[in-house]
Amino acid sequence: MQYVNPSSVMINPSGPGSAHHYALVSNPPPHPSLMHSEMPGHWVLPDGRRVVKLPRPDEFTPPMQTLPPVTFSTRGWPGVRIKDLKDDAFMVDCPYDTPFAHLGWRSTVINLAASLLFLALCSYWLMPCAGVIQWPGYGSRNSRDPQNIRIEAVREGYPISRQGVAKQVAFLANHFYNSQKDGPIARGQEKWEFNRDNIRPSDLVLLSIHYYKNQWVPEFYVFE
Description:
Largest sheet: 6 strands, antiparallel
Number of helices: 3
Shape: globular
Number of strands: 15
Order of helices and strands: HEEEEEEHEEEEEEEHEE
């Protein structure tokens, strides 16, 4: 029987460390949020794993947005895992960009209410505008829900950075999970149940947030 050196056996010939993987990550695709079209139903990460887009109401589609999106990527590859954003050492691409500086907002209200994930950005005059993601299968509450958080969009003269926005969205996802993980979900929507036995924050990938009239809506993808 011919001897095979274990070090020469590659379990996944296209996986990390392979020539194929190196060629792939060296040429990341364009960010789909910048295509001014529908977001793809699926997305592929650099390690080959596929994620599926979280459904949203039809009116929340990139062609309907009223401001350019804020995108998130890692080493050039579109998408950031919520799990990674919990690590203080992890940085998104262009982390020090200030995507809201030109808009004049000075404070940010983050409101997590049952099925609605609000990222409400206030103008210089503190006129509230809502940001929301509707998680399929959960009933909604109004913006007066007690789960409200206000953060400063400008602190000590510096506007919030891209890294700061990403971390706030990650915090919202974890907050939503902890508040909703034992709650009921509508019949027929069990696939999107947000609890420890199904979808968890570690299963989420954030690609971007989009502005529709008066609200920012995150684009989340979920591991299949």
